[in-house]
User: What shape does this take?
Amino acid sequence: MKNTWVMCFLALGLISICRCDDPPLVESRHSIWFQNNDTKVRLCLVTYSYPDTSLPDLVNSWELRGMPVNEKIPYNLNEESWKNVEKNSSAKLCVFIFDSDTVSMYSWEEMKQCYKILMRYDLSAQELKNIKNTITYP
Assistant: This one.
């Protein structure tokens, strides 16, 4: 019984020492912000594939982030990709905005083939800085 308690405390200690990624809706120093001024919930997707502006294969549904109506939410960027965008003047983030109804109505393959997006932003680090890291739709 004593060994079980010792193992529990060791496990908790190791977990607290390990660095975890920020929760999805918490601001970090690599955050961009989305402001949805539309009357409907929108979805956004950020990619680092510029100049390829085609829609990527969607690996996980959580890659699509909900944009609530009249709310400003943070989107935490991958640190390594963010550094690449900051250091390389030709590197840009591709930000896609989608209608949530369209995404639920069509398969991702159809979304890709027909390019069913509402808006796309291609932004460099300087352009993001100029808009104070806030992307406003529409």
